[in-house]
Write a structure and sequence with these properties.
heterodimer, A: 122 residues, alpha+beta, Sufe protein. Chain: A, 3-stranded antiparallel sheet, 3 strands, 45% helix, B: 411 residues, alpha/beta, Aspartate Aminotransferase, domain 2, 2 domains, 7-stranded mixed sheet, 4-stranded antiparallel sheet, 13 helices, 37% helix
Chain lengths: 122, 411
C-alpha cells in the first residue's frame, strides 16, 4: 500500500477547507502527542442552528492529518448536528480509504478526535 | 585499518533475517543493532550458568558472579575508569536520575546553581527541574548558536560566570543527539574544576562514535546506555570518581546493596554495589561487556574515522535535496553520529513514513529534545544516524528516496 496516494498529497498541498473561522458557533481542538501538531475544527450552523453551514480547520500538520481533515470538512459540511454526533472512527477510515501503519493512524483520526470534542460541547 | 561498513553486516544476524523485506537502518542513534557475539554471550549465560550473582556458594553461582564482575571490569576499561567506579543501571536516564538525586541532593543547597545547556536530552533536563523545585536551586543554560550548532561559552569569563551564579554542578551532553555537535567537554571541565565545580557528562550518544577516556575529558561522572553501543536494552552505566560515589547515599535500597541489616537500621555496601539494589540485569551486563570488547577489537579510532567519512558523504549528498535544511556543524571534526534536517513543505513524519515505504529507517520527531527544537523554531525534525554497519549504499538509498518524495510532493 502506498501511504502517499496522489489524492492525499494533492489535498494536503491544496486543502479546500483550511481556513480559520473568526466567528464560529463551535470549535474542537486537539493535540497529536506523536508530533506535537495541533488541529482546530470550526463550525458555523444555519439559521435554525440544526445544520452545518460551514466547516473548516486550521493547524500545521503532516500530509495525512491535513488530507484527512480536509476530507472530513467536505463530507460533513452540510450535515445535521445528529449526523455529526453519529460520525464514527470507522466512518473516518472509510472516508480516507487506505489505512496507514498503526503509528500514523492517529494522524488520520486527528480531525475525528477534534470533531468528538466539538460534539461534546453541543 | 579494519573493513567497516557493508563488510561488518555479517556480524549482525538481523541483516540475514528471513522474515521481512530488506532494509536500510539509519536509526542507530535510537538504538543500535546487535552483533552475534553479544547475543551469544547473553545466551551462554542463560543456557550454561544462569545463577544469581553475589550470593551462591556453588560453582555456577560463582561463574555468574565472575562473569558479571568481569563485565564491569571490561566496561570500566573501555572508558578508562576503574571497575569499582562502574555502577550498572537500566539506562542513561536512570543513571542521571540516580546522580541528580544522590549527588545533587548531597551537594546542592538553596540558591545554588546547576549549569546545563539548551541542547540537552530530556534525560539531562527534567530530573534537574524536579530537584531544583525541591532544593530551591537555580538552573542555568549555556545557549547554542542556531547557525553553527555549537555551544556559546566565554572561556575567559567562564570562571567568574560560575562564581557569580553559584554554580556547583555542570551537566552537559557530550554529543548532541539532534545537532551532532561534539561539545568541548574537556575545556569546560578544566575551567569547572579550577572553580571547584563538578562535571557530569551525558555520553549516551557519543559513547558509540569515538574514543572516550573519562580522565582525559575531565569528567567526575559519565553516563550512557548499553543499547546504543551494540549491547542489549535494559542495561546502562553510571561511571563516577570513587571518592564521590563513596560520599553518596543509595538511590534505591533492598537486597544486594547492604553491609549489615537490623530490624530498625542498616548499613550499606561500598560502591558500586551500594547503588545496585536487587538482582541486576546479569545477562545485560554480560552482553554490554561483550559489546565493549567487540568495539575495542574494531578500535574506536577506526569507528570514528569510518563514521566521519560517511557523515561527510551524507552531508554533501543530502544538501542537494531541494528545500532541505541541515542542522548543526558542517565541520566534520565537530560532529558525530547524526545529521538532522527539515525539508520545506514536507512534515518530518511524512518524510519518515515516505522513506520507510522504501525500507529505510530514520528517526522523526523531537528526539526527546523539545527545548532545542523550540529554539530552532520547529516542532520536529528528521534524523539520520550512522554506525559501523552503514555504508555509502545506505546514504545513496536514502538520497534516492528523498528525491522521489520531493518529486511526489510536487516541490
Amino acid at each position: 500500500m502506498n501511504m502517499y496516494r496522489e489524492d492525499i498529497i494533492e489535498r494536503s498541498r491544496f486543502p479546500r477547507f483550511k481556513r480559520e473561522m473568526k466567528a464560529s458557533d463551535l470549535q474542537g481542538e486537539v493535540l497529536n502527542e506523536l508530533c506535537g501538531d495541533e488541529l482546530t475544527l470550526y463550525f458555523s450552523f444555519d439559521e435554525k442552528k440544526e445544520r452545518v453551514a460551514d466547516l473548516t480547520f486550521s493547524g500545521q500538520g503532516c500530509a495525512l492529518m491535513t488530507a484527512a481533515a480536509d476530507m472530513l470538512c467536505e463530507h460533513l459540511g452540510k450535515k445535521t448536528k445528529q449526523d455529526l454526533a453519529a460520525f464514527s472512527a470507522d466512518d473516518m477510515m472509510r472516508l480516507y480509504g487506505d489505512i496507514p501503519s498503526p503509528s500514523r493512524l492517529k494522524c488520520v483520526l486527528l480531525a475525528y478526535e477534534a470533531l468528538k470534542r466539538a460534539v461534546a460541547g453541543l | 585499518m579494519p573493513l567497516l561498513g557493508s563488510h561488518k553486516r555479517k556480524d549482525f544476524p538481523i541483516f540475514a533475517r528471513r522474515q521481512g523485506a530488506p532494509f536500510v537502518y539509519l536509526d542507530s542513534g535510537a538504538t543500535s543493532l546487535k552483533p552475534k557475539r553479544v547475543l551469544d554471550a547473553m545466551n551462554e549465560y542463560h543456557e550454561s550458568y544462569s545463577a544469581n550473582v553475589s550470593r551462591g556458594v556453588y560453582e555456577m553461582a560463582e561463574q555468574a558472579t565472575n562473569a558479571y564482575e568481569d563485565a564491569r571490569a571490561t566496561t570500566s576499561h573501555f572508558i578508562g575508569g576503574k571497575p569499582e567506579e562502574v555502577v550498572f543501571v537500566r539506562n542513561a536516564t536512570e543513571a542521571m536520575n540516580l546522580l541528580v538525586t544522590s549527588f545533587g541532593g548531597l551537594i546542592l543547597r538553596e540558591g545554588d546553581g546547576v549549569l546545563l545547556s539548551e541542547m540537552e536530552h530530556h534525560a539531562n533536563l527534567i530530573p534537574w527541574q524536579q530537584l531544583s523545585k525541591q532544593k530551591k536551586c537555580i538552573l542555568h543554560f549555556l545557549p547554542f548558536n542556531i547557525e553553527s550548532g555549537e555551544l556559546e561559552w566565554d572561556e575567559e569569563m567562564f570562571s567568574s560566570f560560575l562564581k557569580e551564579r553559584k554554580i556547583k554542578i555542570i551537566s552537559l551532553i557530550h554529543s548532541s543527539n539532534v545537532l551532532g555537535t561534539i561539545n568541548p567537554i574537556k575545556e569546560i571541565a578544566e575551567r569547572a574544576h579550577d572553580a571547584g565545580v563538578y562535571m557530569i557528562v551525558d555520553a549516551a550518544q557519543s559513547i558509540t562514535h569515538m574514543p572516550i577516556d573519562v580522565k582525559d575529558i575531565g569528567a567526575d561522572f559519565l553516563v550512557f546506555s548499553g543499547h546504543k553501543l551494540f549491547g542489549p536494552t535494559g542495561i546502562g552505566v553510571l561511571w563516577g570518581r570513587y571518592e564521590l560515589l563513596d560520599r553518596m547515599q543509595p538511590y534505591q535500597s533492598g537486597g544486594e546493596m547492604i553491609q549489615d541489616v537490623n530490624l530498625k537500621t542498616s548499613t550499606f555496601a561500598d560502591p558500586p554495589h551500594r547503588f545496585e539494589a536487587g538482582t541486576p540485569h546479569i545477562a545485560g551486563a554480560i552482553g554490554l561487556g561483550e559489546a565493549t570488547r567487540y568495539m575495542q577489537d574494531i578500535g574506536m579510532s577506526a569507528i570514528r574515522a569510518h563514521e566521519k567519512e560517511l557523515l561527510a558523504y551524507a552531508w554533501e549528498k543530502l544538501s542537494h535535496i531541494k528545500g532541505i535544511h541541515l542542522f548543526g556543524p558542517n565541520d566534520i571534526e565537530k560532529r558525530s553520529g547524526v545529521i538532522s534536517f527539515v525539508i520545506n513543505g514536507i512534515h518530518p513524519h511524512d518524510v519518515g513514513s515516505f522513506v520507510a515505504q522504501d525500507g529505510i529507517m530514520i528517526r522523526v520527531g523531537d528526539h526527546c529534545a523539545k527545548p532545542l527544537h523550540k529554539k530552532l523554531g520547529i516542532t520536529a525534525s528528521s534524523r539520520v544516524s550512522v554506525s559501523i554497519y552503514n555504508d555509502h549504499d545506505d546514504i545513496d538509498a536514502l538520497f534516492l528516496s528523498l528525491e522521489k518524495m520531493v518529486k511526489a510532493f510536487g516541490l
